[in-house]
Specification:
GO terms for molecular function: flavin adenine dinucleotide binding; mRNA dihydrouridine synthase activity; tRNA-dihydrouridine20a synthase activity; tRNA-dihydrouridine20b synthase activity. It comes from Catenaria anguillulae PL171. Keywords: Flavoprotein, FMN, mRNA processing, NAD, NADP, Oxidoreductase, tRNA processing. Helix 11 links the parallel strand 10 (about 265-270) and strand 11. This protein is about 45% helix and about 15% strand. The strands form two sheets. Strands 3-4-6-7-8-9-10-11 form an eight-stranded parallel beta barrel, surrounded by seven helices. It has two domains: about 70-305, Aldolase class I (TIM Barrel), CATH 3.20.20.70; about 310-370, no CATH class. By secondary structure, it is an alpha/beta fold. The protein is built from 16 helices and eleven strands. It has helices spanning about 45-55, 70-75, 95-100, 115-120, 120-130, 145-155, 175, 190-200, 215-230, 250-260, 275-285, 295-300, 310-325, 330-340, 345-350, 355-370; strands at about 10-15, 60-65, 80-85, 105-110, 115, 140-145, 165-170, 205-210, 235-240, 265-270, 290. Flavin mononucleotide binds near residues 88 and 292.
Length: about 375
């Protein structure tokens, strides 16, 4: 189910407009280079690519917005739960978000974006966040070490998003050193400050927090309660500690405890690869929604009950990637994930070298002819 303009009670007209007119075009640009902080893109390539794709999408003055908390209420009334696409650096961008909404994803998160860079740099805004009028509900995930950066970035983006999330889960060493991501699991005071500041400065935005679990669960419950008291309206719990790898089991009891300890919607995250996993997670935790990351990467149609990515979906993604100016490197990666289970070893090797859009298109034409 998708909750875009077809669900009038949840949407209200808004304007696709960042805080200042000169940054308006930022939100209308096509997807350009990848995340600036992971340093995988040569600078000259970023520059050439952003010039090539800038302004591809026409200005869209009106953009419907979605009330995410109402969406959860509606789901509860229907005896259902929300299906959420996780924030994924490099991957959960506009073309992918558009694709998965047509396969029962209710809410999409952007990749984590560094709030201090986003607020300071127009180039970062142009490249890190691209949206469309149909891109709703969308949650902007920020990584920040203080309330000022968090709130300022949220305010700048506020007319082009439905909610803002603080990442308290990124376990990487560089992030911990920068006092962002999972570092914040030790600083509930900073999280509370962020929630209170955004509530004051952009009250129309829904405020959400994505956490991991602490080794001492009492601390995690306390952190969630403090964030909610300060203004958080939705909590997502990835059921692993900062030190645990994604191959380790998810602690469903811990997620359940957090769900039972708070009075806002809670989303359970970890190891959802099939629709059955999703139902089981809700049964085990009692949560109001589930969030998937790796499962959606390999099968964007999992919430629609498809056991593997249908060819049509992969093909549709290719069209969306081209029309939104997605970097071919990112599109190729997505398609490699999606087709992994479809292709034998030889075919995978063949597709591996199809890393330009014409080559990917040609590959699909051949395959559709065979289907
Ligand atoms: C490629 C990739 C990128 C990710 N990027 C982010 C991110 O930007 N922000 C975040 O909070 N978590 C990020 N995560 C973690 C996921 O959101 C999720 O919490 C984790 O993968 C567990 O869910 P899963 O078992 O469904 O994969 C990322 C995970 C993957 C696989």
């Amino acid at each position: 189910m998708t909750m875009t303009a077809t669900s009038p009670p949840l949407t209200s007209p808004g304007t696709l407009r960042p805080a200042t007119d000169d940054t308006l075009q930022s939100y209308l640009h096509a997807e350009t280079a990848d995340d600036s902080w992971n340093h995988e893109w040569p600078e000259e390539e970023q520059d050439i690519f952003s010039r090539l794709t800038a302004g591809v999408l026409p200005p869209q003055p009106e953009c419907p917005r979605t009330d995410i908390i109402k969406l959860f209420e509606l789901k509860r009334e229907q005896g259902d739960y929300a299906k959420v696409c996780a924030p994924m650096v490099r991957y959960s961008k506009v073309a992918f978000r558009e694709l998965i909404r047509s396969y029962n994803v209710d809410i999409c998160y952007t990749p984590m974006i560094l709030a201090n860079v986003f607020r300071a740099s127009e180039f970062a805004r142009n490249t890190e966040y691209t949206t469309l009028p149909t891109d709703t509900p969308v949650v902007l995930q920020l990584a920040a070490s203080n309330a000022d950066d968090f709130a300022e970035a949220a305010v700048i983006a506020s007319r082009a998003i439905d909610a803002v999330d603080i990442n308290c889960g990124c376990p990487q060493r560089w992030a911990y050193k920068e006092q962002i991501g999972s570092y914040l699991m030790e600083r509930p005071d900073i999280i509370a400050d962020m929630m209170a500041t955004v509530r004051r400065r952009a009250p129309e935005l829904t405020r959400t927090v994505k956490i991991r679990i602490n080794p001492d669960l009492k601390d995690t419950v306390e952190l969630a309660r403090r964030a909610i008291a300060a203004g958080a309206q939705l909590i997502t719990v990835h059921g692993r500690t900062r030190m645990q790898k994604s191959t380790e089991p998810v602690d469903y009891d811990a997620i359940k405890l957090i769900k039972e300890s708070v009075d806002v919607p809670v989303v359970a995250n970890g190891n959802i690869f099939t629709l059955q996993d999703s139902h089981d997670t809700v049964a085990k935790t009692g949560c109001d929604g589930v969030m998937a990351a790796r499962g959606l990467l390999e099968n964007p149609c999992l919430f629609a009950g498809h056991p593997v990515t249908p060819w049509e979906a992969a093909h549709k993604y290719l069209g969306l990637a081209i029309s939104t100016g997605t970097h071919p490197f990112v599109a190729h990666h997505h398609l490699m994930f999606m087709l992994e289970k479809r292709l034998g070893a030889w075919e995978r090797r063949r597709f591996h070298v199809c890393n330009s859009f014409p080559a990917m298109q040609e590959y699909f034409e051949e395959h559709f002819a065979e289907c």
